[in-house]
Each structure stands twice: as structure tokens, then as C-alpha cells.
Amino acid sequence: MMPTDPLRFYGNPSSPYSRKMLALLRYRKIPHAVMWGSPSAAPPHFPKPKVGLLPTFYFPTEDGGLEAVVDSTPIARRLEREHSGRSAIPADPELAFYMDLIEDYADEWLTKPMFHYRWHHQADRDHAGKFLAFTTNTALDSASAQSDAAAFTKRQFERLYVVGSNDQTAGAIEASYQRFIAILDNLLAAHTFLFGDRPSVADFAVYGQMTQLGLVDPTPRALMLKNTPRLEAWIWKTDDLAGLEPVEHGWIDGATARTRLAPLFAEIAETYLPVLLANASAVANGEAQFTTEICGSKWTQPTFPYHARCLADLRKNFSSLEGEAREAVAATLMTNGCEALTERVE
Ligand SMILES: N[C@@H](CCC(=O)N[C@@H](CS)C(=O)NCC(=O)O)C(=O)O
After folding, report:
1. Res 5: pLDDT
2. What is the DSSP string of 237-281?
3. Which pLDDT does position 345 carry in this prediction?
4. Up-side HSE of residue 184: CA atoms within 13 Å toward CB?
5. pLDDT score recorded for residue 86
6. Which residues touch 47 (CB under 8 Å, ≥6 apart)?
7. Whose CA is nearest to atom 2 of ligand 1?
8. Which atom of ligand 1 is nearest to 21's Cα?
9. How far apart are the first and last CA of the chain?
10. ∠17-23-268 over CA atoms, to 5°?
11. Å from CA of 71 to ligand 1 middle
């Protein structure tokens, strides 16, 4: 494959991670081609991904072939290594740590409200089934759309428990979304992006989940429009930032980040962190499910080995910090209830 060939990937408009990566590629001006669909429909010379997740990327290999890769977080780092300019990762290690944490929260926690709102309430469920059916094929006839919608809805409704959404946790999930949009709205009133006047991978991760919560699914969209209408404009603009010319001093400094992002870190400490910690202990003990408390409500869900890795990665990131950056991050995590992230990984 020639270096000028576009980077190809399968994605779906209803997939927050597909949207995250498409917006990142547009901003970074990396030649790309999104194929709306599923890797199961790929031409025979396309390799199969190890796990069937969207987006699935096809990177050229040295021998002229292709390799199928999933998981947006490492792909975003790989794109930083392979393409220079218009970086979406701040060079300051303190900011980069905060960015990784917020990206992880967006990818792994905000996806809970996203999936929950999509399938928990009847009105959202009725909308999502049809939306998903037509994203697969906009030319579907009505009868097939109806039966596909019914099949999707049944499957996804039955999988709500996987992300921890059930009648007991619904209140905690919904309250966390409402607090999050209020925090984001405040942050975006002061700077265009989380880390200043240029976007970071964390912005694209938040954007990806918000494309669904804020633009697609009726209940969370109505909440956003009522309480934080600024966010609708932010989502649409973040969709295509190819015309933004970032400047080096577009990033805020560490001192600004510490104060500015404190409410978000405190929110992470109340929601995502307890889940990460309880999940990791349960994974270590070989348990099939875990129970914890989120803002005073009981939270039970099946263990998720991938999240044990997320916690270990965040701790490794912390342990690789040195000098002033390490001290500053430690103090910030301590002040905002995230000190568990400073523990050593064995
Ligand atoms: N950690 C992955 C997650 C990707 C992911 O979970 N994709 C979802 C759609 S948004 C998926 O393909 N799910 C397949 C399924 O649920 O069957 C990433 O960041 O790319």
C-alpha cells in the first residue's frame, strides 16, 4: 500500500468510538476513508480483527498487506507516532496524564449512560432500534427495518446488565450524566476545548459519546438541550476541525489544568473510580460479579477484565511520571479523591 493511500476503517454512525476516531482523523488531516458497515462485509483480502468491535482499522503492513486493529486508545497513540503535526496529545507530561484519565473516563464510563439511555427507556429503545437498522442499510425496506429493529432492540436490551445498567443503577447513571454535562458546559464556557484552545484525544473521546447522548438518543438529548444547549454547538463543531490551525501555546498550563479540571476529577472519583477498583479486586479474586457504591446507591455488575487493565494502565502512567509533573499530578489526584491511581502496580 502506498503511504498516500487513505487509512481505511469500518465504522457506524451510532458507534461513539467510530465518531471519536473519524473526528480525530479529520482534525489531524490524516488521509482516511471510513467505510460505513461491518468488518464481516469486508472484501476477502481484508484480515479478520481479533475481536469484532467498531471501529476496525486496517493498517498497511511492511509486506504490503493489511493488519486489522481495534481499540481507539492505542490507535490514537499510534497515529501520533506515525503522523507528525496537529498533535492531539499535549507535550507536558502532567497534562498528558490528565488527558489519558479523561479519555478513559469518556470511553469507559460515559459509555454507560450512552448505552443505558439508548436501551433502558421505552421511547429511546423504540427510536434506537430503527436508527440502528437504517444505519446498517439506509435502503432497507420497511418490513426488514422493522424486524431488524426488533432483533437489535431485544439483543441490546438483554445486554444492558453488561455495562451495569439495571433498575437499581439507573438513577446513579442518569444523575452522573446530568452532573457531567453541567461540568462540561462550565469547562467549555472558559475554553473551547478541555485543555485550552486546541483539541486533545480526550476531547474526541468525550465528543464521541456526546454524538450519541446529545444528538441521537431522545432522553439524554432533551436533557442536554434543556440544561446545556452550548454542548450541541460544540459537538457539531468538534465533528470537523480540519480548518482549525492549532498553535503551540494553545494548551493551558498545569496550574490552570489543576483548578479548571478539578470538578471533573472529583466526578471521576465518585463514579468511574469505585467501579474500576471494585472490578479489579473481583477480577483478581476470580469473581464473576462485583458490588460497590456510586454516590450512595448500590452498584452491581459482572466483572469486566478489560477494566482491570484500564486501572493498571492509569497507574502505570502515573508511575512513569517524574519530578515536578509527578508531584503535581499526585497532589491533584489526592485533592480530588483519585489517590487510588497513585498506587503501585505489582
Ligand atoms: N475500546 C474500544 C471499544 C470499541 C467498542 O466497544 N465498540 C462497540 C461499538 S461503539 C462495538 O463494536 N460493540 C460490539 C458489540 O457490542 O457487539 C475502542 O475504544 O475502540
Report:
1. 87
2. HHT--TT----GGGBPPHHHHHHHTHHHHHHHHHTHHHHHHHHHH
3. 84
4. 29
5. 98
6. 58, 65, 66, 67, 68
7. 71
8. 20
9. 41
10. 55
11. 8
Q: Would you state the pLDDT for residue 292?
A: 97
Residue-level pLDDT at 1: 45
Quick one: cell of 128?
A: 434506537
Quote the pLDDT of residue 81. Answer: 98
How far does the centroid of ligand 1 lie from the alpha carbon of residue 239, in Å? 19
Low-confidence ranges of the chain (pLDDT < 70): 1-4
Instruction: Say whether 192 sits in a helix, a strand or coil.
Output: coil
User: What is the 334 CA–ligand 1 centroid distance (Å)?
Assistant: 32
Q: What is the pLDDT of residue 226?
A: 98
Main-chain dihedrals φ then ψ at residue 295, nearest 5 degrees: 45, 45
The pLDDT score that the predictor gives to residue 37 is 96
Question: Hey, what's the cell of 89?
Answer: 496529545
Domains of the chain: 7-82 (3.40.30.10), 93-115+164-342 (no CATH)
Residue of 9, 12, 17, 22 to test ligand 1 pocket, by largest number of atoms within 8 Å of CB: 17
Q: Which residues lie with the beta carbon below 6 Å from any ligand 1 atom?
A: 15-17, 53-54, 70-73, 107
CA 261 / ligand 1 centre spacing (Å): 27
CA-closest residue to ligand 1 atom 10? 15
Nearest CA to 72 out of 120, 108, 35, 31 is that of: 108
